[in-house]
């Protein structure tokens, strides 16, 4: 049979087009390869269940990509607040005000323009405990860039942020406009970033076409789900109007607000060692201690471990370096000789609780007196008698005391430093620690040695960002096989010594005055 051109146009061409439209995206991507450009999308659900991840997008999980917390527990419902922030129009600061009033952590994906134009605002994000992340330097389509230009978009922003704020960008990346490919994710991974998408967003970005606030609020609540990663634009006037009511509604529903460190934790699920930063400014909480003495503190969490602590101690002794070990009471009871060795070799011992629980769990947020949510305000706690104070949660006190008792029984030393598991620190936790005469020690450089980082990656993270006064987080007990902490230390310590750095305990660091002021 012979087909005329008109017949092909009228009958065959539409049929071919329909086949292409129906062809699974995975087939198209397979033919196009890793460079196939995709646009992130979600399939919204109407029953408050997490949206499914379509099969063609499932490859993100193998490339350091995250869209929601699929391991979120029904007993501990969580929402992750993320904001794409390219500029300030007066609304970003107002968004920060609302987050601060709720003590809710957010993640801000920023551009170079915002750092240059609003350095105080960007610094405020980090100072109030939010995670500041990489949205690229110039908001370009990352799928169109060659490898060198791609890397420059990430590195240039990170360098600018460090120059302007003195801080390090968190290792999370969001591609502009959600345009991505497998190559984009793998390049981000090679640069040390995890890519964070979202599980709900709405059209809030056009300042000339802002949605009705009542509709926007209801739209978000209708699609709320456990483990939700919410994308908002903080320049939106609508978001400013609804954010306080939205957070209140979620709090009444029993949700808490998580951080990207928790979302992207190793293997997902509770129990992973995850640094989670607080939303607070507190004189009793230390992440860094400014000094010009070239002094820094190495800290190690979660031990002592029969597998890894001894070899770390051997190398520290060889190099004449003292560190601070935040020990778990249960681990110390299992490995008493290692705890005694830490103390005997001049290291400092800190308290990391007895069993390393998740302090964000409900058992640590309920008052033992009134059964309500913890508060300092005694007028809100009907069971608190006059002069006794506000709410009390003895579960946290027991965790701290049990670890302290173990350390004292083994070494006859009192612990005075406390590091909450996962770095989770609220005003209530800080108040409990202060009442027990502890100073809370967090960190400002996270080596992520618990997260399958190689020795070269760990060393690059430290050497590329270290400054005098830094508190650096390592682990001497991890769940992964073959951690690279020791091999990384063998690169880091000699390099920092060559630069003139001194290694001191945390107490020595935070009690150090400026050298030039003496």
Poorly predicted runs are 1-10, 12-32, 266-281
Principal-axes geometry comes out as globular
Q: What is the SS-derived class?
A: alpha/beta
Rg, rounded, reads 25 Å
Number of helices: 18
Distance between the terminal alpha carbons, to the nearest Å? 98 Å
Indicate the mean pLDDT.
84
Helical residue percent band: 25-40%
Task: Tell me the fraction of residues in β-strands, as a range.
Answer: 5-15%
The biggest sheet, with number of strands, parallel, antiparallel or mixed sense and barrel status, is:
6 strands, parallel
Q: How many strands?
A: 19
Describe the structure.
With 518 residues, the protein is α/β, with parallel strands linked by helices. Helix content is 37%, strand content 13%. It has helices at residues 5-22, 25-32, 91-102, 112-117, 119-127, 147-165, 182-190, 213-222, 237-252, 260-263, 309-319, 329-334, 336-344, 394-411, 427-435, 455-463, 485-498, 506-510; strands spanning 38-39, 65-66, 78-85, 106-110, 131-134, 172-173, 179-180, 194-196, 228-232, 256-257, 285-286, 295-301, 324-327, 348-351, 417-418, 439-441, 445-446, 471-475, 502-503. Strands 12, 13, 14, 17, 18 and 19 form a 6-stranded parallel sheet that branches. Strands 3, 4, 5, 9 and 10 form a 5-stranded parallel sheet that branches. A 3-stranded parallel sheet has the order 2-8-6, with helices on one face. α3 (91-102) packs parallel to α9, α8 crosses α9 and α16 packs parallel to α17 (485-498). The longest helix is centred in the first third of the chain and has 19 residues, at 147-165. The radius of gyration is 25 Å and the shape is globular. The chain starts with a helix and ends in an 8-residue tail after the last helix.
